[in-house]
Amino acid sequence: MPPIRSFAVVGVVLLAAVAGCDRPVERPGEPVASASFSHDIRADQSGYYQPLTPVRSGDWTLSHLFIGQDVAFVAWEGGERIGGLAPVTLEFEDRDGTRVRVVPARYTVTDSRVSFAGRSPDLGEVAFDGRLDPEALATARRNLGDQGAVVTGTLKIGGRTISGVRFRWWAGD
What we know:
This protein has 3 helices and 11 strands; from the N terminus they run αββββαβββββαββ. The chain has helices at residues 2-19, 70-77, 134-142, and strands spanning 37-40, 47-51, 56-57, 60-67, 88-94, 99-102, 104-110, 113-120, 124-132, 151-157, 160-170.
């Protein structure tokens, strides 16, 4: 009977080990794959979204919101992390020209909504919740950039909330 007990113990240990395999490995300062990341996009939204008017918090100015292509979302949601690149980021610049890219701890992106939250050692908690106008985006893409707002929402930086932040679409360099 002792060998059966040994197999039972080994079986329980193996089962516990296998059950833990699907858990993402957490690394300091790096988000992990989870249900906190989701996208449901039918139209291409990729590109840079620049504020129509300067958005500042202390010494920091919002440079842009970046939204990647579908393949970037799939990779991120599958746990791939390559050099601080993410399918959705917010980038800020301070008065000295230092840039900080905030990667997501969570996001939801659809054809009409962009919701993002992340953290930066320089800025603290950063969140954006906005409405994306699919028709305005389609027009901007056809015109290779239009000066009209395609995303409008609320930005939170640290303890500060800035409402009515408006972005135009820009294809990038």
